[in-house]
Amino acid sequence: MPSAALQTPTEHLTLGHALASHAERLSATTALVYGRPDGGQDRRSYAELYAQAAAIGAALHDLPARTHDRPFVLIALPDGVDYVASFFGSVLADTVAVTFHPPLMSTTRAGRAWDHRLEQILRDCEPSAVITTPELHTRVRAVAGAAALAPLVLAPEDVGWDAGAEAGPVRTRPHHLALLQYTSGSTSSPKGAMVSHANLAHNIAHIRRNLSTGPGQSAAGWLPLFHDMGLIGMVCHPLTAGMSLHMSTPTGFLRNPLGWLRTLSETRSTFTIAPDFGYATAVHKVPEERRAGLDLSGLRHALNGAEPVRRRTVTAFTEAYAPHGFHPHALMPVYGLAEATLVVTCLDRQAPPALHEADRRTLGGAAPRSGDFRAGTARTELVGCGSAIAPDTEVAVVDPRTSRRLPAGEIGEIWISGPGVAGGYWGREQASRETFGATVDEPGSPARRFLRTGDLGIWHEGQLRVAGRIKDVIIHRGTNHHPQDLEATAEGCHPQVARAVAFAVRDEDDQDEQVVLACELHAYGGSDHAGVLTALRTAVLEEHGIAPAAVAVVQTGAVPRTTSGKLRRAEAAQRWSAGEFRTVALWHRGATSKGGRR
């Protein structure tokens, strides 16, 4: 077996060293089981996963490096064992993985959006190779050709591997770049956060220490692998810990959320992670009678992150599954982001989720207003996400206008400093300086560099509470969407649409941020309002995978703007929640009307 295994299985230089060590020490232990759409399963032991990864790594050997000291390898595969093996193959080859995904929908519009996104990333990082399915080879080559690139294009099934084969030494080192994690970004400028092996090793080591995960334990989840929470939190962390991982796809979860719970029960999994909507879905889409026979008593850590954690979700999930052995302390709200590798703060293992009641009217007092809260409600409960995950990580709440640290109890922007913070955005020097190079203005303090998150937070009783976002990013089912992307889609979907605004709202019974689109028309007389509404809904669904809660044609001038003409999305959300939009035609779930809101 691999000759590069470490002598101490609990600490590893890189992900490649960790997998090599486990392939030797846990060779026959199940590393990964992936449920297929046809109901079957793909399974790999640690020896098999390492062998497949090493074979893919060998196929990537001696690639030319175009714009970096190591080649970039873009992975555009469906979620599954081949994606995991390809990522670790990139690691073992000492290349830089660029995570991506295949087309999510088969429509023409969605295909064009995928091609455009792929071309943007290809132009940005100029990968030397693309790992994708055989069906996408020709398409990827065509898109790469449009970007004046000719990368090696290969499929995992084209690479033969032998579970008993010997492999060479692991060449990766902590300072080497491991991953470009692209943010959702605007359509014109996706940004790749540069995550090193040291970033990954630090973050994963402290996740393990906080959760006491290790060999002999199991984990189960369903998150997408091109996203940092799925790849790092749900795959890299359990596998480098020597756990047995059982995965399904996001589509499989949405079709059958009970499957996730059954896997947790049957495998006696101790760990899982999901966004808030996942836990809410497990409550509202799994009737009580179908929960019979579940045993979640083995689940010690159910992390909740990637979007705001809601008190009602914490309470509802705990109450729904307490009769099935779920312990209330197991549900652990966490805070993190790709620019800080993954997890930034988490709860102590013995602490229940903490709630803090705040006045909504004060939540913008020390920072730009956030559109994350509905107008008209005076109080809101903020869920505690614990403290910094590592002693050498500092999490500060800062007034973004003065760069001064704020005392506990005051709202401000969340800033982060520590070994988990990524090295900046690939090829974006100015954006990197602005986002990753902040300093706190306080006399006598060292010039420590901080990551500006754009998130609003408050320290209360030693825990960070995330209160909203300075930016207008919409988080829908755990995925970030920039409103300007949706607005661009809306404005191009129908010739009568002049301009549009996209924002998120949440009614009392909603378990996820709901997207609303409002548009003004070039002319209103004789316009096909119903056709516009249909075009808006269809375009946003096909290009972004979002089914809007409502779309509206509004009167000219109804969309709020600044004096310089910039959209005021937070104010639009507040007007919508208060029923103050002057609508001409409205579609919302369950009904279509004219006149709609005021």
UniProtKB/TrEMBL annotation:
Keyword field: Fatty acid metabolism, Ligase, Lipid metabolism
GO molecular function, one term: adenylyltransferase activity
Keyword Signal in record: no
Residue ranges constituting the AMP-dependent synthetase/ligase domain according to the UniProt record: 21-426
CDD domains referenced in this protein's UniProt entry, alphabetically: FAAL (cd05931)
GO cellular component terms, semicolon-separated: plasma membrane
Annotated protein name in UniProt: Polyketide synthase
Species name: Streptomyces zinciresistens K42
